[in-house]
What does this fold into?
Amino acid sequence: MAAHDPVEQKYVYDFAEGNKDLKDLLGGKGANLAEMTNLGLPVPPGFTITTEACKAYLTTGREPDGLAAQIEAHLESLEREMGRRLGDPDDPLLVSVRSGAKFSMPGMMETVLNVGLNDRSVVGLSNQAGGNDRFAWDSYRRLIQMFGKTVCEVPGEEFEHALDEIKRAKGTHNDLDLDADDLRGLVDAYKQIFAKHTGREFPQEPREQLDLAIRAVFDSWNAERAILYRRQERIPADLGTAVNVVTMVFGNLGPDSGTGVAFTRDPGSGAQGIYGDYLANAQGEDVVAGIRNTVPLQELEQLDKTSYDELLGIMARLEEHYKDLCDIEFTIERGKLWMLQTRVGKRTAAAAFVIAGQLVDEGLIDLDEALHRVNGAQLAQLMFPRFQLDHEFEPVAKGIGASPGAASGKVVFTSARAVELAAEGESVILVRRETNPDDLNGMIAAKGILTSRGGKTSHAAVVARGMGKTCVSGADELEVNVPAKKFTVGDHVVNEGDVVSIDGTTGKVYLGEVPVMPSEVVQYFEGELDPENTDDALVRSVHRIMTHADAARRLRVRTNADTGADAARARRFGAEGIGLCRTEHMFLGDRRELVERLILASGEQEREDALAALLPLQRADFIEIFREMDGLPVTVRLIDPPLHEFLPPLEQLAVNVAVAQERGEDVAKEEALLAAVRRMHEENPMLGLRGVRLGLVIPGLFAMQVRAIAEAAVAVVRDGGKACPEIMVPLVGAVQELETVRAEAERIIAEVVGDSGVEVLIGTMIEVPRAALTAGQIAEAAEFFSFGTNDLTQMGWGFSRDDVEGAFFWRYLELGIFGISPFESIDTDGVGRLVRIAAEEGRAARPGLKLGVCGEHGGDPDSVHFFHEVGLDYVSCSPFRVPVARLEAGRASITTTGSDSR
Ligand code: PEP
Ligand code: MG
It folds into this structure.
């Protein structure tokens, strides 16, 4: 084969060659400048150097072959078009060199303006500007300043000091009072600063300026603040930035010039109108620097009506073209309008919903696209009360934002005190090192929960989310001292009764009361606000998009609820059944003692007595829930507590016994109890006697629950109601476990339901990796699977769900081992693979096997998309996340070509 030159990669695109869909290659700014150019809008001519060139440079440390020549060719054609040469002494072309990555990273990377100015072309620029020396020297000093700072790392303050110095000498605070001579002097001062820091003169060769500026923009991709921003915003680290070389236009040529920014709608509320700021006789960086105050864009109408009308026309055109809110930057040079940037603008959660609704009304997008334009994270934000942080409040600690919302109240350290104070009408924040199921009453009574230990799936977090209650967990700067009824954080000591405020979204903890505002979106979901009859644009839009999501989605959405009240709320929020009723939550309070007796029973009689006492209580629990759900499926999970949650604490017991012995008291009973607790003590309770194992070890326990479920269903049906129970066995790892439980359950059900017509399904959780891997066998004995992704993640990764998030995940996140906690969003490659295998093999063994998920991931937006794709029938999540899951299930079902508005 004959040798031939490889086709040279194209690294430089003229604006006329690109379009808005080439953001990967040209970055957001470049792609949109190209789009505007092709729309015939007034964009200063220029070209874009691709992200590919940047990536090649960042990998090898030098510009890729061919780049220099391509830049030369595009520069020449730009010079031809403009009829000027870069840096020409008589009539110079000047350019700006601007960064522009695929995703907007505001202010994180670099820009250099006025490239092409030097000691000679500064005179040419003055001539171009009609002999405006002041303007020319001001432009030159700006170049040295920006170039020095950006390209050569000269400390920016040195330039600012020199400027302040001149202003002081002149007795003014205003840059505009400096005349041409002052600025010429400033250029000399700047050049000296430049030479002092770089050891060389300021480069006079225009092409060298250009090349160095381009390189500096490439390098700025890896500036510390850019790296930090990407991590925060989850922007991939390997995208690189494009570089835009744009003909300079000047907003600082006099009162008929200026610069501004504008939005086509209010990015805060979504309201239609004209939103923007304008600064006459200035360049863009003056607006950012806040040297002079901008005026509202409307005032431009008085200053320059022609440009104002043209701008409004362009904004309308851009909205129609992008079919979305756009933000723009523009400059007016002596009465001529130039568009310097546009992009689909960032917006608040509320504005996202309102604008999507408006665009449908305007016929610009359809409802599928509107659904695509909003997301569950935004909806979740709109559902929680928020702090009004307009006053100055400084957080004293930061933990994990475990359950969103904003809560203020008096600090209490025990559940009992929480209940007491709440009964007196006080708002309380329950503060614990960590919570356990015994704290439930306190958690219910409290406005919010604050713990110094534990992660997003710790007990406190899961339960709080279930209740829609604000929770900050793992705030490890807090030293919580329960017996002393105080906590310390830094120099502060907070005693019982002192007021704190916690933000469950940000994890921040404040001293004192921060005011909150309620959410109208929750009022709507609660049925307190009629969407057809409100002038609240947000509520109307949320309603419309939710209705469409419900129509579009394939996944059904159930809830995790253990009480009638939770079940009722979840139904109002749109739940179509209960996917997980955790029965262990029903064994707290007064009943705890019965369970303790059951577990520690020394004889059959004692055990049977305890079971007989529990049966009617359980039956009543289920009747309440079945009634609330009125014929919707209710999955009741047989009891699954880690054993230690139901036994008296070993150490406490041992101390009590020792003290009593010392006093010579009769401790025979306590000793027997201590021996039993010792016998049952486990080093790893989460891997110990829990779930199905407990049911197989303690005779009669599961049987009592099955009977209570079946009897409750029959009672509801006989009363004219409907009940659709599904019994779920937890922590199954082998089909034999399930078969054993099933055989007994079927016998009891047959006995109880008789001819009532009640049907009870029996299925299992898939939450032990072995169960996922033997799902084909397990499906033989199960009518449904529900994936317990909390335990599946815990056991799949070998991460203790109660400890690791607070302990070391920060490091894993920092290292990029994962981008988000796998307890929060399903790890699709690993844990998700187990789900996929089990779903496929389960369905192969039993076509029609019902599949759902009830781990915390069931309400996580990204995870919902995964479960849709894997083919599950439903997701189940805490009541407050039901609307989010409905929305995301709808979004997962639609396909659209719409834009990514990040
Ligand atoms: C799970 O493990 O995902 C689950 C739903 O069960 P629990 O959180 O109660 O262990
Ligand atoms: Mg579990």
